[in-house]
Amino acid sequence: MEFPVNARILPAVLALAAVLLPLPAGALDLPKGEVILTVTATRLDHPNVDGTAQFDLAMLETLAGRVGEMETPWTEGKVKFSGPLLRSVLDAAGAHGTSLKVVALNDYEADVPMEDATTLDTMLATRIDGKPMSVRDKGPLFLVYPFDQNADLFNEKYFSRSVWQIKSIKVAE
């Protein structure tokens, strides 16, 4: 049996259903501001734009993160970095894999083992001394290792993985 559909009511019913129906668990919102990070992976559980996970600054700053005051080879004296933990970003995207290729705006790439995200409090710094990081100051995102928590990380191995001006992360199996 067919029921007649009032063409004027159908758009309102569909809009109401979109608001009332819950998003799938772990669903990633669409970015509202400028996209500053795109995560890609063979297996991505929470894509939000064309099979990728895209983040604006506001989305990143709502994720679990940390603040660390530390010296680095690229800054003068101690500075305070803050931003989401790398693992929080990967979890929000639902990214699965064993290694990461972190890519900068100038296409510089560094290979980072997934363990650096899961076992260390590695962050994607969005702020330095409380201020958003500009491209000129290594922003908008800077992969910062927890040098303040573990002095053994303060070496060339981790320096070479500390990418700044990050635009994307490619997760590989």
Automatic annotation (TrEMBL):
InterPro entries to which the protein is assigned, alphabetical: OxRdtase_Mopterin-bd_dom, OxRdtase_Mopterin-bd_sf
Span of domain Oxidoreductase molybdopterin-binding: 72-146
Organismal lineage: Bacteria, Pseudomonadati, Pseudomonadota, Alphaproteobacteria, Hyphomicrobiales
Pfam families according to UniProt: Oxidored_molyb
Organism per entry: Pararhizobium antarcticum
Protein name per Swiss-Prot or TrEMBL: Oxidoreductase molybdopterin-binding domain-containing protein
Domain of life: Bacteria
SUPFAM superfamilies, per database record: Oxidoreductase molybdopterin-binding domain (SSF56524)
